[in-house]
């Protein structure tokens, strides 16, 4: 494979007793925005750090453009680590120019890119401020600028949206879409599943270091047979082959096994009282995530 796909292949990592990644395999294709989601401690950061070569795997490989990622290749990646590594006493502009230079840019290019990205991310007025004096959201914007200003050919971003206000979320979303449209593979982790649902071409759900679902958002949302039923009366919807995803008052979201006839569910509901709502339900990514995670137990 010589295209710019990022590929995890059987990646496994232990921290002592903790199996943080367990035979993790998936790929992020050129031009694709891939959302990496999972509970706290599921293994997202570990996977991303291995992709960057910051951490080594115990088994398996991560390849980009068909090869294990070398230090030289890593310079062409835009990486946003979970633990943000900015120098608090340096000004925003000095910081960004310095980081751009580390990525091999000339002084003039580094300066121009700093101006461009600080303008784009709404930091024009903050260029001369010390990073440590900025609000957390603005520090986050600087971190994003740092990941983007050298024109990376692969983006690996650990929770890039956390702490951003809605305007910054929109800017960030459009930047990711633009980079993907230019053919860059984009991998990012997030707990903001509505955002992931809106933005991503494909999503990988990781639980205890294993990939438990990986597909387009549409395909994932179609895998469950769910119904929303509202019955104005006391009703226990836990019929054979029916799992109650959640109930709120008289309104229930139900997941049906393959052999359950939805008309039987309707008859049972009508026997309990007037049915004011009965419709197939396409779960949101958030609902799907809850199902996938709680089905198989909580993570550490
Ligand atoms: N340096 C370390 N030493 C020991 N255990 C670690 C270390 N780093 C991570 N772990 C463990 O590995 C597992 C995966 O952690 P990781 O940080 O990759 O998860 P995550 O999905 O990024 O979580 P979050 O959403 O909370 O950021 C967890 O059980 C965590 O406690």
TrEMBL record:
Gene3D superfamilies: P-loop containing nucleotide triphosphate hydrolases
Keywords per UniProt: ATP-binding, Nucleotide-binding, Transport
Superkingdom of the organism of origin: Bacteria
A molecular function GO annotation: ATP binding
The ABC transporter domain, residue ranges: 6-233
Family: Belongs to the ABC transporter superfamily.
Name used for this protein in its record: ATP-binding cassette domain-containing protein
Taxonomic path: Bacteria, Bacillati, Actinomycetota, Actinomycetes, Cryptosporangiales
């Amino acid at each position: 494979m010589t295209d710019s796909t990022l590929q995890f292949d059987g990646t496994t990592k232990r921290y002592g007793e903790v199996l943080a990644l367990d035979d993790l395999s998936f790929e992020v294709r050129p031009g694709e925005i891939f959302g990496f989601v999972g509970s706290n401690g599921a293994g997202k950061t570990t996977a991303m750090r291995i992709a960057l070569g910051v951490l080594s795997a115990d088994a398996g490989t991560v390849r980009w453009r068909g090869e294990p990622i070398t230090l030289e290749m890593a310079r062409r990646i835009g990486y946003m680590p979970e633990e943000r590594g900015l120098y608090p006493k340096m000004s925003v502009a000095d910081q960004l120019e310095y980081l751009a230079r580390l990525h091999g840019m000339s002084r003039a290019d580094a300066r121009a890119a700093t101006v461009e990205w600080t303008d784009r991310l709404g930091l024009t007025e903050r260029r001369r401020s010390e990073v440590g004096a900025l609000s957390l959201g603005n520090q986050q914007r600087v971190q994003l600028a740092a990941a983007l200003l050298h024109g990376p050919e692969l983006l690996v971003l650990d929770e890039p949206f956390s702490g951003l206000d809605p305007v910054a979320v929109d800017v960030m979303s459009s930047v990711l879409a633009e980079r993907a449209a230019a053919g860059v593979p984009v991998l990012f982790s997030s707990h903001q599943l509505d955002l992931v649902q809106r933005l991503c071409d494909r999503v990988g759900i990781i639980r205890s270091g294993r990939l438990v679902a990986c597909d387009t958002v549409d395909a994932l949302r179609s895998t469950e047979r769910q119904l929303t039923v509202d019955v104005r009366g006391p009703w226990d919807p836990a019929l054979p082959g029916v799992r109650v995803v959640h109930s709120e008052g008289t309104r229930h979201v139900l997941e049906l096994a393959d052999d359950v006839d939805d008309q039987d569910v309707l008859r049972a509901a009508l026997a309990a009282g007037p049915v004011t709502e009965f419709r197939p339900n396409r779960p949101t990514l958030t609902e799907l995530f809850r199902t996938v995670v709680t089905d198989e137990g909580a993570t550490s």
